[in-house]
Predict the structure.
Amino acid sequence: MIEYAFEVGIILIVLISALLLIGTPISISMGIGAVAACFVVLPSSKVAVTAAQRIYSGINSFSLLAIPFFVLAGNIMNNGGIAQRLVNFAKSIIGSIPGALAQANVVANMFFGSVSGSGVAAAAAIGGILDPIESKEGYDKRYAAAVNIASAPCGMLIPPSNIFIVYSLASSGASIAALFMAGYIPGILWGIGCMVVAYYYAKKLGYKPSPILGARAKLKTFIDAIPCLFLIVIIVGGILGGVFTATEASCIAVVYSLLLSLCYKQLTWRVLYNAFLSSVKTSGMIIFMIGVSSILSWIMSFTGIPTYIAEGFLRLTDNGVVILLMMNLILLIMGCIMDPTPAVLIFTPIFLPIVVKFGINPIHFGVIMVFNLCVGTITPPVGPILFTGCKIANLKIEDVFKHLIPYFIAEIAILLLITYVPVLSMYIPSIVGLVK
Amino acid sequence: MMEQIHGLLKKILAGVCVAIMSALVCAVTWQVFSRYVLRSPSSITEELSTILFVWMVLLSAAYLFGEIDGHMNMGIISDKAVGKVKLILNISSQTAILWFAVFVLIRGGSIAVINCMKQVNSAIPSITIGQIYIALPICGYITAYFCVFFILKNIFTCFINRSESLRKEKSI
């Protein structure tokens, strides 16, 4: 079937690009491109049924069930008073430094990411709570929004992370638990990068340190936050200890956050119904895309397109450092115009075989890929976290974008560090025995 | 009439999807509970959850096709387009969705249902694989209805705008 690779490749590129340009949903664009390509290699009577069965087999996975559960847990936490307690705790541990509220925003986004796994949910929940407080304390709205937007993608790297689940599926076998563990250090480094930039600008803008909380108040916020923080222990401890799978852990996260929100008496039936419906919509969109993209993955592997692309890359250079740099560039550009889920689904089958040839561990490459695409979530024209953060702060994208540039520089420096220092990603998975 | 059916269909789909999601939470919780508390792991919850999940995804995907921009797109041109160009782009995009729904989900899905109607699910023998596949054509029919609705709505809007501008011209 290799002889059809060129023809199929052209059909895929032309058709998918044309449909995307006219505003057709990404899932349908990928689906129509892949189905049209199937006509080249399959008898026309078999195309429709093969495509339908591919969609079904792409969705028919117990592991994928973790995505709607983590989205639902995030939505419940967002509405159930958990985010507020995490913000209070973050404020208390930051203490008295210039721009303390902005620093608390970064830390709270990291905490929220470690219980929900969604950057958009973190930007909405934490930004929504801190934005009015920061305005009241005289913070520049654009500065505050930039900090919230820049730090929210931490949640996509710090486990649990929905995008790692998608990568695990697209890579056909990378362990979800190992990916989760590998995301810790890069996620924390992302947060530290944001804190350094936020601190520098807070000093430059002359923000005064907030008053220090007394020991008793600090203890109270900590005690208040313990039940919320215990969720991290349940999820991570549960998966690592082999108590339950990632899917079961995500379901326990839903039940736990539901019980906690009921205790905090912040959930009504209407709010709960809306949280369920919003989760169904978000996850339905992502997983339908995964299902349809499996037609694309199938036709690409059937015709050997990834092998051709790998050979093309190797003809350009046989230097692993340059290959990784080129991939980073492609992923950064694609991340700007594409959401992380379709980008992972499209580029994993193409890039992974190439990097494996250079001895790069699929877990390490997963972190590099997700990190690149996280940068894309805060850049226009397709930046879901950028849009959410601007909407929360009631600002235009052009108002905030200039303030985001220093954060981009910091994140790209960290990206290079993560790309060329594999131990940053592989250390935790190896010490817990998930990778040899 | 079509507008009312559209609204009703979306309400029903939303209710069904939320009910399936709630059932999924219960099923997976029961799986963990039965394994660790009752020490008697449930043999069917994992398979049942996966089946419910497939149905939920396909029905929610259909629901999202009933919303403008419900599914993720890259409106680089379409978001900036106005007037007739926007209308043409909308109709073209809806036609592409309609083709996919009819060809892959309805036609392909129906053939898959017929082919697998006698293939029994190994974990739950009372269910056949064909019965699970029925979600595909159902998703296809609902999606196709929403597409036709949006296409007709776009054409109708175009005619109204045209007749209004003609009326204005005449009055001038």
Observations:
- Residues 102 and 170 of chain B are 43 Å apart (CA to CA).
- Chain B touches chain A through 55 residues (CB under 8 Å).
- The radius of gyration of chain B is 22 Å.
- Residues 135-171 of chain B form the longest helix (37 residues).
